Amino acid sequence: MIVVEGVADVAAVDDFVAELDSIGEACDCAVTALDARYVAGRHHLEAAVERANRAFARDDAIADDRAIEVLLYAAGRRQIQQALEMGVSEGEGPIVVVVDGDDEAGAAERVRTLVEPAAVIGVERDEELICEFFGITDAELGATDAPLEALVVERVSLLAIDK
After folding, report:
1. Which residues contact 47 (CB under 8 A, 6 or more apart)?
2. How many separate helices (H) and strands (E) can be counted in the chain?
3. Lowest mean pLDDT across 2-6, 104-108, 141-145
4. What is the fold, at CATH topology level, of the domain defined by 2-161?
């Protein structure tokens, strides 16, 4: 798995996603773009990719497309429409693109032509937004000394159980 992080100016989401799909097809990779504000950390992304790959290996995936499956796991949602809230949106903003598959290096190189490099994982995350999106309450945060990312990874893992 390679993670490309930075800022992108997305004129049209459908066109941007189509370009990522094209890169993924050419390099035999899942290429998934996420709004960096929702990403709790690198382990969050690793857990989503691992669970999505496991679901495909077991023929137990929710989606037909591995890039969408990664998005579903990253968002901890079974419904694509709900998971898309964590995807990219029009305008300029911080994004994270996860590349996983055969020619990851080639795909990541092509993705970097669409993204202005910048450190955004952890820098751009919005803890209030993450807590709201993943349903993490103040009571839950107060009851544990686990970092926010660990609680998000727990939500990612629960998606496999909720199937």
Report:
1. 73, 153, 156, 157
2. 8, 4
3. 141-145
4. PF0523-like (3.30.2380)
The Cα 47–Cα 158 span in angstroms is 11
Q: Is the CB of residue 31 less than 8 Å from the CB of residue 97? A: yes
Structure-block tokens of residue 89: 């949106």
* Separation between Cα atoms, residue 20 and residue 32, nearest integer Å: 7
| Separation between Cα atoms, residue 108 and residue 131, nearest integer Å | 29
- In the three-class reduction of DSSP (H, G, I as helix; E, B as strand; rest coil), residue 107 is classed as helix
Question: 84-125: per-residue pLDDT in tens?
Answer: 999 999 999 999 999 999 999 999 999 999 999 999 998 899
Strands 91-101 and 2-10: antiparallel
Q: Which two tokens stand for residue 77?
A: 């949602």
All structural domains of the chain with their residue ranges: 2-161
Residue 123 carries which DSSP code?
A: T
